[in-house]
Amino acid sequence: MLKRFAAALLLAATALPGMAADLPNHPFIHVNATADQYIMPDVGEIDIDIVSLEPDAEAAFKLVNERLEAGRALFAENGIAPEDVLVQDIVRRPRKVEVLPEGQPLPMETRVSLHITVRNLEHWTPVMRALLVMKDLESLTVAFNRSDRQKVEADLLQQALRMAKAKAQEIARGVGAKLGPASGVSIGALKNLSNAMGMASDSNARSSGGRRTGARTEMALVQAIRLAQSVDVIYRIGGK
Prior knowledge:
With 240 residues, the protein is α+β, with helices and mostly antiparallel strands. The chain contains 5 helices and 9 strands. 32% of the residues lie in helices and 30% in strands.
C-alpha cells in the first residue's frame, strides 16, 4: 500500500512539473482541522457617518457639527471615554448619485465619519437605540470582539492541532501504517499543495473574526461571535 501511494505521488510530480516543488518528497498524509467557539463579546465597535445635503456650505457645516455634538453627549452619558470616539475631518464633496438629470450639477454633501469603541456593553442597547432614530446618519455598521481574543484563539489553535493529529492517526490506521512526525504546519490552507493534489478546501470554513452586521433590526442587541482557528498539517507516513 505504501509503495503504491509513493508511486502515485511520484507520478503526480512527473505529470505536474510546475507543481512538483510544492509536494513533499516523501509519502505523506495531509489533513486540516478547524476549532471554533461561539462566545459572548465584551467589546463593541460602531462606524457611522453624519451627512448633510444642505446646498449652503455654512448651513451644512452647522448641521453636521450639531449632530456631532449630540452624538458626543450621547456617548458621554453612557460612559464612553472621549478617546474611544474617533472623529475624522469634516469633508465637503460632490455626492455620488446613480442618475443625474442632464445639465444639473452634482449635489454636494458634507460628511464626517466616526468610529466608536464601546468597552462596557451594558450601555450598548441604549446607545444603539438612540443612534437608530437620530437624523442625518448614514453607513451605520457594528462589530463585536473580545478583549482576550488572543488567548481564546491560542486555545483554539491547540484544539485544532489535536483534532488534525487525531484525524491523521485514523487515516494512517486505515491504510495499515503508523503516523510519522509532522513535516509541515500552516495556520489556514496550504493552497499550493491542496491545488496540486486536487484537495482544495472551502476557504469560508477558515474564516475567523468578530461579527459585523448591517441589519438594523439586530444592531441594538449584543450578539455572540464565532472565533475559529484552522490548521493544515502534513505528516510523514511511517512503516507498517
